[in-house]
Amino acid sequence: MRVLITGGTGHIGKTTAEHLLQKGWDVRIFDVTEKTHIADAEFIQGNILDYDNLLKYIKGCDAVIHLAALAAPSIAPGSKVFEINVTGTFNVFEAAAVCGIGKVAQASSINALGAYFSVGQIYPQYFPIDEEHPQFTTDPYSFSKQLIEEIGDYYWRRDSISSVALRFPGVYAPEGRTTERYYHDRTALKELLDELVRQPQAERETRLNEVKKRVMDFRKERAFEFRLPEKTPIKLPYDDLLFRLYMRYRFDLWAFVDVRDAAQSLEKGITADYQGSHPLFINATHNALGYDSRTLVHLFYPEVTQFKSELTDSASLVSIQKARSLIGFEPEYNS
């Protein structure tokens, strides 16, 4: 079985290509980079905005894994992020349709919901969050991911292409969660959470309201978006642990996934027996700090009182139940 992987030399793409090669797949990589170091994979240098060239190399493939994109709003102006991510995705699906390909697995993002890069507040309505939750995107990258999911819907209606848009959160390499620095930071953040729990309610609320204001002032500056070289870069005060908890983890919904689990979800996205176009959250089954989830909700989302299922221990605030039932995804690397 031959698969085309756009963006196949990137973080997720390289792991996915190696994963499929080990299983005996015929892998063709299509990427803007000049070369690849992935042995046994066919490599084509190309741009997903060049439709004719893309069409040439999608021909003969049985499925497509689409990963090529600008991965953050800081990389380029919003117009370029939109062009590459949205027009590029349209080109991939259009070429797949012309070639009669019936399965596409594409990388969406937890940000299709509206998360880390948001310029304003996020408003979870219930936990664990699932694919039924309303979207509230406010930055060009997140908006582009919201739209590529609609492209999948369009090609299901138009050409009966079955596809999944995998909503990845932060994707970690195995070594990224085993370093001394990682364990040090994880311990310090959990100790800070313990400290917040022990504080009198009035003191805790004052402290959290203060950091909330600083974070929201920071986000209003659109600090995660592209800045011209002559503009002073905005620095994140990540040495402030409470700021980090509110700025990063709260807006990421404490979700994460190992890159090897991202790879297996992409494989299942083109091999599982399903029909239609589906966004799917893909993440570990517990939250990023391994902390009590009900406590996290109480501290950082006190307005949320609805729970679709019980959150016990450190269970993830983002449900993967739909990915389990539709494509058989089950994370293998939860630590």
Looking across the biggest beta sheet, what order are the strands in?
Answer: 3-2-1-4-5-6-9
Helical content class: 40-55%
- The top level CATH class name of the largest domain: Alpha Beta
| Count of discrete alpha- or pi-helical segments spanning 4 or more residues | 10
Evaluate the radius of gyration: 20 Å
> How many strand segments?
9
Note poorly predicted spans: none
Class derived from helix and strand content: alpha/beta
| N-to-C CA distance | 32 Å
Number of domains: 2
- What would you call the shape? globular
Q: How does the major sheet shape up?
A: 7 strands, parallel
Second CATH tier, the architecture of the largest domain: 3-Layer(aba) Sandwich
The CATH superfamily of the largest domain appears as NAD(P)-binding Rossmann-like Domain
Sheet-strand content, in percent, reads 5-15%
CATH topology of the largest domain: Rossmann fold
Order of helices and strands: EHEEHEHEHEEHHHEHEHH
Average of pLDDT: 95
Commentary on this structure:
It is a single chain. The model has no long low-confidence stretch (mean pLDDT 95). This protein is globular. The strands form two sheets. A seven-stranded parallel beta sheet has the order 3-2-1-4-5-6-9, with helices on both faces. The chain has a two-stranded parallel sheet with strand order 7-8. Helix 1 crosses helix 8 (259-271), helix 3 packs parallel to helix 4 and helix 6 (201-220) packs across helix 7 (241-252). It folds into two domains: 2-173 and 256-288 and 316-327, NAD(P)-binding Rossmann-like Domain (Rossmann fold, 3-Layer(aba) Sandwich), CATH 3.40.50; 175-252, no CATH class. With 335 residues, it is α/β, with parallel strands linked by helices. The protein has helices spanning 11-22, 51-58, 78-98, 140-159, 180-198, 201-220, 241-252, 259-271, 293-300, 321-327; strands spanning 2-6, 26-31, 42-45, 63-66, 103-107, 162-167, 170-172, 256-258, 277-281. It is built from ten helices and nine strands. 43% of the residues are buried.
